[in-house]
Amino acid sequence: MTHAxxxxxxxxxxxxxxxxxxxxxxxLSEIYEGDGAGADGIPPSAVLRFGYDDGLMYQMEVVRGxxxxxxxRFEEWSDRDCxxxxxxxxxxxxxxxxxxQLWKWMAxxxxxxxxxxxxxx
Length: 121
Fold this sequence. Notes:
Layout: E1 4-9, E2 15-17, H1 21-33, E3 45-52, E4 57-64, E5 70-77, E6 90-94, H2 96-107, H3 111-115
Antiparallel strand pairs: 1-2, 1-3, 3-4, 4-5, 5-6
């Protein structure tokens, strides 16, 4: 039987299995409302992944942009090991609320809604 999973890698680098909406919002708050780049000079980021044990994986990374907004990158893969890209990565700039909506759709397995957004390829 195929099992779905969702995993959040927060700005601190820790992984959270099956994150709650509150955990998603907290990770985005660190990105959007933090006090700048980390000690290494790299802007904070977080990645939400959704996939199936025996197949497809979707990944959405949110990185703090230069102007305080967020840069979002959405990727589709054949498996968890990122062996075959199923589509070109898509990008957009978005505020915290829009990023949270995208992450909620991903956690709810609503990939079609994510694909329908105004992405730049």
